[in-house]
Backbone:
């Protein structure tokens, strides 16, 4: 099945999200759509899938012009989409999720699950996908949930599969398995559209590459006709930033240390964990999401009381202190979820920038706010961190993801505290902003701050860390120095404790 | 500009639609009960805004005092993300304490009045604080705790005026009258007491507080995103307790105003049956907690209520039908106001996927 988009334009109010884009998707091809956040790639795919209605332009399937009034139409025509955030019912079984909305029902309305099972086996055969169909989806790992989403598409025999950032939640091994499945789909003549911002993956698997920037299609050509450097330049619209030099510097004193820390996690107890972070180093905590990192961060920051153990910041015990006190002693925190925790989206950029400041006198006169001083501070932050926003009084929710994140990073780093805790600081952020945030974190390190980086992006950990701790099932599975770290070694630590893995083999 | 005009005309159209819908329902109801339509309409408007020397408008304003006062109290809590729906209890406690202090405390009238009002505010504040303490230290969600505290307040007040402090001679379940000298005076030539000025001051305080103070800023951040407020280290517990105390104090003030301005004593049920606190909550939600609009919203609700009563008097429309009409008006206006608010928020949405 061949799909053609021609002249697609999507507007949200005054913003043109997709501007006159024409694109062809060929059967038996893996088509990567690349671009920074806000480049319009997700919106374009949402238009293709019937989730947004384009203002102009046409979608044609096998040469016939089609119009979707809802995603149901697109699904009926043979399209399927796996969203970045999975659309699954956790309390239902894998099979129930898969057949949802296209149940093989008889005339009395009873669902024949045997029929569904047979049908699914037929389709899934030969792709190397194995999943217990009766398990509850809630009990599956993130990688397995993704497989459920893919099986859903397969069950409906989708000929065009759209996958939005499918690898962002996977371990390197899981990613390899996913790619094997996608290759097998390709061999069957299905078309796959891969929305991503990871260049390496594109180079590894794509046949055709389309780059979007600012809502426009910059290029669309076979992978063989382009190069990695060129794609990267097209994505950011300029030259690539030079790779960063890591300055050797002597280690400072211990800034943060945790001893036998135990925390109540989701489903298991996290810990006991013992580690320390010194001034002038970035310690990375790697691991697949959900292995206790979030609980660790909450305990360190003060969002959660630990069950046992101690945490010291600058030689003061803090495990029973509240967040305000910890921040006052010398902690800044860049949370993972900028939409809820990092920012108050309903407030203005200025109100967000000034939240959590210790120097009350600088932005208040007695009980009253000094709005002018607040705006000046916000403006300084906007300039220094090159945040694109209409102004200090613009609402935070008018900003793009990358700029929101820069505002969070800027606010926290401007506090200049001895310790910075950064939790997935570049999650869902474009390349330009990622580079900038990495630069700022490195600068903090070079200036002698202690940085604890918790990230599920292995590339991020490898790019920044002086030391790497890998977490698995609530424990530290291993420690690797940043210089000698290699991807596969960390990848295997991420999926099992080294000792346990050996024991299993034996 | 073209789009703005489009939006405005769209807005006007939908308002016209809402008014048409209200009129249509009105027509059907009037035909159903066989009431004269024009008289009923006139009755509604004169009942809300007219009367001899604007007597009915004064009634509306008097009701506005209590509804808007409660709305301001609720707004302070809601904007801070605190779902304090115990305004009724705080109002009752304030009214009861005001009446008792007014009756029992000897001294010059102005002193008694001042002391009563302050005592009412403290009582209302403490009652609200109790719900906050239950949430923070016992783990009772504020929504539940504040609601459940309405009942002890109500029955405590009933008991007080039914037994220890009852005006037995009156034969009613009510306290003695507070001294006449302490009654809030009327505006010259009207039957409207100056209680509305107290609420005016409270409204001014609430607006200034919400827009210009550090405390208002911090509590709004907490209201917008509690996770955010916690993560940036705002003193969330302190903010919660202080905001609740403030909220409760204003409810207490409203209770005192009802005692010294309107009833001049505490009558069992006088602050509960008219649903002032609940109407206040709806009035706040109608305008999406925008501070300056809250008093206006209170006025709107008061006018709809007195208008419905006017309709009942003028065209002998049964009370129940008048209530239905009242509900219909609120429903359609609410759908329009919230529709406009949603529209403006979707307009702001950009592509940050």
Residues:
């Amino acid at each position: 099945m061949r799909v053609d988009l021609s002249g697609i334009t999507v507007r949200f109010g005054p913003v043109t999200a997709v501007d006159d884009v024409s694109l062809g998707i060929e059967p038996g091809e893996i088509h990567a759509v690349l671009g920074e956040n806000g480049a319009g790639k997700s919106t374009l795919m949402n238009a293709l899938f019937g989730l947004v209605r384009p203002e102009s332009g046409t979608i044609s399937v096998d040469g016939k012009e089609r119009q979707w009034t809802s995603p149901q139409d697109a699904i009926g025509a043979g399209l399927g989409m796996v969203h970045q955030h999975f659309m699954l019912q956790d309390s239902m079984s894998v099979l129930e999720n898969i057949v949802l909305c296209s149940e093989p029902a008889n005339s009395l309305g009873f669902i024949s699950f045997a029929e569904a099972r047979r049908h699914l086996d037929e389709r899934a055969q030969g792709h190397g996908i194995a999943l217990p169909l009766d398990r509850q989806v809630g009990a599956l790992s993130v990688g397995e949930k993704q497989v459920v989403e893919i099986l859903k598409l397969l069950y409906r025999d989708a000929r065009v599969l759209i996958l939005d950032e499918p690898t962002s939640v996977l371990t390197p091994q899981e990613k390899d398995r996913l790619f094997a499945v996608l290759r097998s789909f390709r061999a069957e003549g299905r078309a796959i559209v891969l929305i991503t911002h990871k260049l390496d993956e594109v180079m590894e698997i794509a046949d055709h590459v389309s780059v979007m920037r600012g809502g426009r299609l910059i290029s669309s050509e076979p992978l063989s006709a382009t190069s990695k450097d060129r794609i990267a330049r097209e994505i950011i619209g300029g030259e690539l930033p030079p790779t960063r030099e890591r300055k050797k510097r002597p280690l400072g004193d211990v800034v943060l240390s945790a001893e036998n820390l135990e925390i109540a996690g989701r489903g298991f107890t996290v810990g006991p964990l013992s580690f320390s972070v010194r001034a002038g180093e970035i310690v990375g905590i790697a691991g697949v999401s959900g292995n206790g990192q979030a609980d660790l961060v909450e305990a360190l920051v003060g969002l959660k009381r630990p069950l046992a153990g101690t945490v010291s910041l600058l030689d003061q015990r803090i495990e029973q202190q509240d967040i305000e006190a910890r921040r006052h002693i010398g902690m800044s925190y860049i949370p993972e979820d900028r939409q809820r925790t990092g920012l108050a989206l309903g407030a203005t950029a200025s109100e967000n920038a000034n939240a959590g400041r210790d120097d009350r006198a600088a932005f208040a006169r007695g009980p009253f706010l000094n709005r002018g001083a607040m705006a000046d501070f916000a403006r300084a932050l906007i300039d220094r961190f090159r945040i694109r926003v209409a102004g200090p009084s613009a609402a935070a929710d008018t900003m793009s993801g990358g700029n929101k994140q820069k505002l969070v990073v800027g606010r926290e780093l401007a506090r200049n505290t001895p310790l910075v805790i950064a939790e997935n600081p570049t999650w869902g952020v474009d390349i330009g902003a990622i580079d900038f945030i990495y630069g700022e974190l490195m600068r903090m390190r070079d200036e002698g701050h202690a940085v604890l980086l918790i990230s599920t992006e292995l590339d991020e950990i490898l790019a920044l860390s002086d030391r790497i701790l890998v977490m698995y099932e609530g424990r530290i599975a291993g420690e690797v120095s940043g210089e000698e770290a290699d991807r596969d070694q960390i990848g295997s630590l991420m999926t099992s404790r080294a000792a346990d893995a050996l024991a299993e083999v034996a | 500009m073209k789009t703005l005009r489009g939006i405005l005309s769209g807005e006007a159209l939908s308002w016209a639609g809402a008014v048409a819908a209200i009129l249509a329902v009105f027509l059907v109801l009037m035909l159903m009960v066989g009431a004269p339509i024009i008289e009923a309409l006139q009755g509604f408007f004169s009942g809300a805004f007219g009367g001899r020397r604007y007597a009915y408008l004064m009634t509306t304003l008097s009701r506005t005092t209590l509804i808007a006062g409660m709305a301001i109290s609720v707004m302070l809590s809601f904007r801070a993300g605190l779902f304090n729906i115990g305004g009724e209890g705080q109002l009752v406690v304030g009214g009861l304490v005001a009446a008792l202090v007014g009756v029992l405390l000897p001294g010059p009238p102005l002193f008694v009045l001042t002391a009563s009002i302050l005592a009412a505010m403290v009582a209302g504040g403490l009652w609200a604080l109790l719900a906050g303490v239950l949430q923070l230290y016992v783990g009772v969600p504020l929504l539940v705790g504040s609601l459940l505290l309405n009942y002890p307040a109500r029955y405590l007040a009933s008991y007080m005026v039914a037994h220890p402090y009852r005006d037995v001679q009156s034969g009613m379940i009510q306290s003695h009258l507070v001294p006449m000298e302490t009654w809030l005076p009327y505006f010259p030539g009207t039957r409207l007491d100056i209680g509305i000025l107290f609420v005016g001051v409270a409204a001014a305080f609430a607006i200034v507080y919400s827009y210009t103070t550090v405390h208002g800023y911090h509590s709004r951040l907490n209201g917008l995103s509690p996770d955010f407020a916690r993560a940036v280290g705002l003193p969330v517990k302190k903010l919660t307790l202080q905001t609740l105390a403030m909220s409760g104090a204003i409810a207490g003030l409203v209770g005192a105003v009802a005692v010294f301005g309107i009833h001049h004593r505490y009558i069992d049920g006088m602050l509960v049956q008219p649903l002032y606190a609940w109407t206040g909550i709806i009035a706040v939600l109608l305008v999406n907690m925008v501070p300056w609009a809250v008093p206006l919203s209170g006025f709107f609700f008061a006018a709809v209520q007195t208008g419905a009563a006017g309709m009942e008097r003028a065209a002998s429309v049964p009370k129940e039908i008048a209530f239905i009409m009242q509900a219909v008006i609120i429903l359609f206006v609410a759908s329009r106001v919230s529709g406009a608010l949603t529209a403006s928020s979707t307009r702001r949405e950009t592509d940050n996927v």
